[in-house]
Amino acid sequence: LLSARLNNALEKKRLRDKEIKYQDKIKIEQKKSENLLLNILPSSTASRLKSGETLIADDIEDATVLFADIPKFTSLSSRITAKELVMLLNTIFSKFDEILSRYSLEKIKTIGDNYMLAGGIPNPNKDHAELVALMALEMIDVMLEMSEKVNHKLEIRIGMNSGPLSAGVIGKKKFVYDLWGDTVNVASRMETSGKTNKIHVSEASYQHLKDTFNFIKCDKMDIPGKGLMQTYYLTNKL
Questions:
Q1: What are 150-186's pLDDT values in tens digits?
Q2: DSSP strand E in 10-93: where?
Q3: Which residues lie below 8 Å from residue 229, measured CB to CB, with a gap of 6+?
């Protein structure tokens, strides 16, 4: 009887130990899933998705959007291998990610050698324009630093705009967090119509930043889809 009781106790302990191991594995996998989700979505949006929301769409009253592009980046393919090209781009974007995290901004997406981010989303932040401007200045510094390391002139073209926009999650498979609206379109136009190693800023962003940053006023530009617009080049913080 004693032997049977001992064997029963040992079996219970073995099953309990096995259960604890399974629970630990489940917790580890859950943590991996949460980290992956946070790499795709803002934390507050990820929490809403986990709580069961199926349609996430928000109207943001005021935010700042930045587009950055590395012109002629693929021309490097004649000098280095495809793997080295991807590794270089990954190094640059990883440095951008570090700055982004420091300023509590949101990376929206990368497409090829184009990097898109925003401030003031999904949660309002009255300093969104200033934080994006500070990041833009550091992004130019990163490109100058990387140019010296690879012994090749790397340039970046940056555009910024501020205003209302819509933000949300689209798709059921490979879903993405994205932004829509005229504010986003104008930010993209600021980038494509700007000069390399310059931060091309709209009137709306200028109004947010004029008391804390220095600017060079541009001649009015004919912006595709918008007509004549007054724009500026942001140079440095006061």
A1: 888 899 999 999 999 999 887 666 678 899 999 999 9
A2: 57-69
A3: 186, 202, 203, 220, 221, 223
In this structure, are residues 154 and 145 in contact, taking their beta carbons and an 8 Å threshold? no
Sole residue written with tokens 């002629």: 72
Chain centre to alpha carbon of residue 221: 28
- Kindly state the DSSP code that residue 212 receives in the 8-state scheme: T
Name which of 156, 28, 27, 178 is nearest 95 in CA terms: 156
pLDDT of residue 232: 97
209 within 8 A of 219, measured Cβ to Cβ:
no
Q: DSSP letters along 92-121, please?
A: HHHHHHHHHHHTT-EEEEEETTEEEEEES-
Name the H helices within 109-225: 128-150, 182-192, 203-209
Taking alpha carbons only, the member of 17, 115, 3, 123 closest to residue 61 is: 123
Of 66, 236, 92, the C-alpha closest to 152 is 92
From CA 206, how far away is CA 28, in angstroms rounded?
Answer: 46
Query: Distance (Å, rounded) from C-alpha 76 to C-alpha 154?
Result: 10
50-91 confidence digits (pLDDT tens): 777 667 788 999 999 999 999 988 778 778 888 988 999 999
pTM: 0.83
Q: Give the model's pLDDT for residue 24.
A: 67
Three-point CA angle 177, 33, 102, nearest 5°: 60
Asked if residues 128 and 162 have their Cβ atoms less than 8 Å apart, the reply is yes
10 Å Cβ neighbour count for 165?
25
Q: Rounded to whole angstroms, how far apart are CA atoms 67 and 60?
A: 18
